[in-house]
Automatic annotation (TrEMBL), chain A:
CDD domains: UBCc_UBE2W (cd23808). Coiled coil: none annotated. Residues 4-155 form the UBC core domain. This is UBC-like protein.
Automatic annotation (TrEMBL), chain B:
A zinc finger (TRAF-type) spans 116-160. It comes from the Eukaryota. This is RING-type domain-containing protein. Keywords: Coiled coil, Metal-binding, Zinc, Zinc-finger. Residues 238-265 form a coiled coil. Residues 33-71 form the RING-type domain. The keyword Metal-binding applies. InterPro entries: Znf_C3HC4_RING-type, Znf_RING, Znf_RING/FYVE/PHD, Znf_RING_CS, Znf_TRAF. It comes from Ascodesmis nigricans.
């Protein structure tokens, strides 16, 4: 990992230990390039109330110039939230997470968590994206290779 | 950094990445680049007035042509050097030498880091003057042009070692010996201290030196001495006494300190008390003087009151006299009035008599006396008048 990315991640880690926004928790990081975070939706949205979801972060050598790979993962007592932009394998269709689209190097792990948190908060549809089953079947692809078309300005 | 044009200054103008430095003090978040979150290195400002490290914003623009903070469209041509004051602020921050992890303990202002690495830092990798291999500056043998990777024989054990490793070898070389100061035995440098601590020839003091035994000699003789030393048996007792004395002295010192403290406190109370007494005395004296003054005042007043009384009496006397005089004056006044009336009556009489004298004898019977009589009867004459004329009336009648 480049010293530049490592330095930046160390700084974020130090900030995380000072405190995080409500509903966001640091779980662990087996190494500096791989973090896990838990998020909760704070309002009483019936779709997510009382549930906690786990996010998996993978950082490239070029972080924060390049966006991290962020997906939901399953774990004991952690499922993949129902959302029209979240596939059942945990892949999130969010322009913010795509370098060259919505990603900005000013973002951080915490701000990404907050964005995903608010994406869940605003959702009322208890459904998966169109073509979810077919998408999930074509496994083995890196998230980075997926070219999403960000056509929904409502989320 | 002479030109404000971003294109002219590449991040590579630094010999290494300043963004990876470790800062000693806390750095204000406002001095940090939003991308690397470290203090700004070569701060450049966008047309939307956000400031980044030149290297950070250049990298970010390669991926997305927009400002990372507000996402407004941006190109490399739109970024300009930030005000010099900002660059000065961040260049003055104190950092650890980048070779801190390798052992360099230097701390310096960030602006001097490159100079330090170029000239001073002993932990910088330099080329070996002989073979060109990378070595640390401290391993270069001064300015000599010899290759430090050439093996040479150790001065002591003749083992072959690279020049580079010679120092670390000498520290452990078993043949690099030094002689014991006491017995003269040759011993590797690393073990000499341990040997000296147990050397039989080393001069040691008697175990009872602490309680006054003056003996000292080689360690090997100390055992025989301690058997014969009279102090050896007494030592436990003496040591106990010593410790007791020390305890007592400590206690004594403590008590003395307390006593001094209480004495001082006592002295202070005494002073305060005596001060109070003096104050009281003064006050009483003042009260007494006051009383005395009041008494004398009173006496004076009493005397003057008596005088006044006397004066009043005299005045009353005078007033009585005055009244009497007034009465007399009034009586005199009344008498004078009487006399005036009588005088008036007499004048009238005189005038009438003169008139009768001129008229002849015929009217003699009706003389002045009858006129006076009539007047008297009519009350014209007062009492005094009547008295005056009574002789005349009697003679006439």
């Amino acid at each position: 990992m480049s010293t530049f990315a490592a330095k930046r991640l160390q700084k974020e880690m130090a900030k995380i230990h000072q405190g995080l926004a409500p509903g966001i928790f640091f779980v662990n990081s087996p190494n500096l390039q791989h973090w896990q975070m838990d998020i909760q939706v704070l309002d009483s949205n019936p779709l997510y109330a009382g549930k906690t979801f786990r996010l998996n972060f993978r950082f490239s050598n070029n972080y924060p110039i390049e966006a991290p790979e962020v997906t939901f993962i399953r774990a004991p007592d952690r499922e993949i939230p129902m959302h029209p932009h979240i596939y059942s394998n945990g892949i999130i269709c969010l322009d913010l997470l795509s370098s060259g689209n919505g990603w900005s190097p000013v973002q951080s792990v915490e701000s990404v968590c907050m964005s995903i948190q608010s994406m869940l908060t605003g959702n009322t549809k208890n459904e998966r994206p169109e073509g979810d089953e077919a998408f999930v079947l074509r496994e083995g692809r890196s998230v980075r290779d997926i070219r999403f078309v960000y056509d929904d300005p409502t989320v | 950094m002479s030109s404000p044009d971003a294109a002219a200054i590449r991040p590579s103008s630094h010999s290494f990445d300043l963004r990876s430095l470790t800062y000693i003090t806390h750095v204000d978040d406002n001095l940090c680049c939003p991308i690397c979150q470290s203090p700004l290195v070569d701060p450049f400002t966008t047309s939307c007035r956000h400031t980044f490290c030149l290297a950070c914003i250049t990298d970010a623009l390669k991926v997305s042509k927009s400002c990372p903070v507000d996402r407004s469209p941006l190109d490399t041509a739109d970024i300009k050097m930030a005000p010099v004051v900002l660059a000065n602020l961040v260049n003055d921050l104190t950092v650890l030498c980048p070779n801190h992890a390798l052992g360099c303990s230097a701390t310096l202002s960030r602006g001097n880091v490159e100079g330090h690495l170029k000239e001073d830092c002993q932990y910088v990798t330099v080329d070996c003057p002989g073979c060109g291999e990378k070595i640390m500056r401290k391993d270069r043998q001064g300015d000599s042009e010899d290759c430090v990777h050439v093996e040479e024989a150790c001065r002591y054990c003749s083992e072959k070692h690279r020049k580079l490793d010679m120092k670390s070898h000498e520290a452990v070389c078993s043949a690099f010996t030094s002689s014991c100061r006491h017995c003269g035995i040759e011993c590797p440098l690393s073990k000499i201290l341990a040997h000296e601590a147990t050397c039989d020839e080393a001069i040691v003091n008697c175990d009872s030196a602490s309680v006054g035994c003056p003996w000292h000699g080689p360690r090997k003789e100390s055992t025989t001495h301690s058997v014969s030393c009279p102090l050896t048996h007494l030592r436990p007792l003496l040591e106990e006494h010593n410790s007791r004395i020390a305890n007592l002295e400590r206690e004594n010192k403590l008590l003395r300190r307390r006593l001094e403290a209480s004495l001082t406190a006592r002295a202070q109370t005494d002073i305060i008390q005596s001060n109070t007494t003096t104050a009281l005395d003064n006050q009483t004296l003042r009260v007494l003087t006051e009383q005395e003054r009041i008494r004398s005042d009173m006496e004076r007043l009493y005397v003057s009151m008596q005088e006044l009384d006397m004066k009043q009496n005299t005045l009353a006397m005078f007033m009585g006299e005055n009244m009497r005089t007034q009465e007399e004056v009034a009586m005199i006044g009344a008498a004078v009035n009487n006399l005036q009336t009588q005088l008036h009556g007499l004048q009238l009489l005189t005038i009438r008599r003169q008139g009768m004298d001129q008229n002849g004898a015929g009217n003699r019977s009706d003389g002045p006396s009858s006129q006076v009589k009539r007047a008297a009867e009519n009350g014209v004459l007062g009492r005094a008048g009547r008295e005056c004329f009574s002789d005349m009336f009697e003679t006439r009648d």
